[in-house]
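Objective 1b. Sequence-to-structure analysis of Gluconolaconase.
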Amino acid sequence: MARNTSDPTVWEGPVVTRGARYSSETPLTVAEGWRLQRLTPPSRLFGANGLRTGADDRIYVAQVAGSQISALDVASGSLETISAKGGDIVAPDDLVFDTEGNLIATEYMDARVSVRHPDGTTRVLRDDLPGANGITFHEGRLFVNECRIGGRLMELPLDGSIPRVLVDNLPMPNAMEFGPDGLLYYPVMGTNDIWRVDPNGGEPERVVGDLGVPDSVKFDAAGFIVSTQVGTGEVLRIDPRTGDRRVLANLAPGLDNCTFVGNRLFVSSFTGEITEILGDGATAPILAGGLMWPLDLTFGHDGNLYVADGTYFYVLRAGQLEPVASLFSVNTPGYVRGATSVGPGEFLVSTSSGEIAYYRLGPEPDTEIVAKGYDQLYGIAATVDHCIVVAEFGAGRVMLLHGGRAEAIATGLAGPLGVAFGPNESVLVSESVAGRVVSIKDGSVDVVVDDLDTPHGILVRGTQLFVVDVGLKAVIVVDLETKARRTLAAGLPVGVPEGVVAKPLLGTPPFSGPMGPFAGITASPGGVLYLSADAEGSILTLNQEA
């Protein structure tokens, strides 16, 4: 018998905040004898990337990982979804408004620039601009650049005809803006500097260098550059005439963009945080950050929960998420998707770039790449003698790595995601597309559980198999001996909202490969289940009551 979680003794933890990114009309139910709790609050955004202030003085926020654009009222904190996940705009990274009120967005992963009209209809302006990112509109003209090695800075005719290239072969330009002098200013992350160019022709000119990986340029009312530094977390005010700079604020690495509402300055972070820069180093949080997904979960030897969240790898201490690695860390493992603890301060991880690596914490963190070149790695597990199994979603395989050798122990699988070691030296894997969990042993593949929808993370404890099914929005337990199954919780905030078909996220080279979701599951030494609630961006626990 299931209990509805309107009972506050069952559904505990931080409450859903206004404008949370996920909502559902389906009641959340928990089986008798079990308790569901939320450990971390849900994220209100899917990260925060490009920012642009609209004519209504709201901040429009592009969210690459969520394929969403939201409008934030900085006075009330309320959010409105303008372009939702599953809509026409995919992975928006930056945005601008033209004089007619059309919202124009760069779609980084799909090489597109799309125009969203005030009536909500959308048209693709160009679909052949790999790494389309920085965008601005000036005196009736639209300009876009490509954030990639060898990227171009172009003027795009509004009728969709052939772009005019202003500058070519740029090492990762990003969010740009026109200065009061009529010149176009653009940051170049690959060389840590800011440049300017006359939009009507001429040679580019370097404005300032030796920065902290600048990824945005805007101008304040006095004509000074304001630039976020993704690598250092600094917000800089730069004199475009002399290159002199001043630090307005020091925040965490991972800043993405900035915008002004009147004279108030706001910056975005990959975590989804929006911060106001007040001056003299002071800041004020406007919108709290949170998890972008989360993906895989594992307990470290220190007894703490570690969370793979793609751009960041976190540890949960005293209810607070603390980053231990990110795309910007020294000796970073990269975009972490699968993770399992294998020793004190040591983790085996799979990355979206197709690498398997050991990541070791410490004063000087270290990443040791074990293997690379795989196609969309997800769940990963290891034995005490360093026998590694990993799911390779793109190739439909489960790989076994041991003693410097790699072999496919199963092929032709339909969307393998989660892996775990089962009884009698078997390997279990969830086939997300086939809707089942299978057992691999001695070259044979046998069905363990079928009639699932979209199984993701799996966990084996004794003779029990726990499955997170994002299609059923449930956690299911199966007795591996009797095959009896039971739904422990349903209506969970995993997967995508009802009726939404999420479009593939193709990746952001060189930072990551395809960015697919993965709702992981793990257990504490005491047997409490921990779940990745990837739809709302939180961590849940499911615990059997005494």
